Amino acid sequence: MSKRNAKGVAGRKYTTITIPKPLFEKLEEQISDTGFSSVSDYITYVLRELVSELNEKESAGKTKEGVVRKLKSLGYVG
Question: Does residue 63 come out as left (phi exceeding 0), alpha (psi in the -120 to 50 range) or beta?
Fold first, then answer.
């Protein structure tokens, strides 16, 4: 295992997030046959994917086509 210092592994900074124990246990079971070495690694992966998707949607909404699509979905454009 990597050596940790005050900033985390290899100079990265980390923080602690608290989740309910039953959720943690379900996630542990879910990743048991995957390449993830820990629930923390899996949660980091999932959150990065989610943030990436949200950023893509936000970027798409800023283009002219994205704005038109959004207005259509809201019923402002026919």
Answer: beta
52 falls within a domain: yes
Answer whether residue 47 is part of any domain: yes
Rounded to two decimals, what is the model's pTM?
0.59
Tens-digit pLDDT profile for the chain (78 aa)?
Answer: 444 444 556 677 889 999 999 999 999 999 999 999 999 999 999 999 999 888 877 776 677 777 787 788 888 877
Does a structural domain hold residue 42? yes
Q: How many domains does the chain have?
A: 1
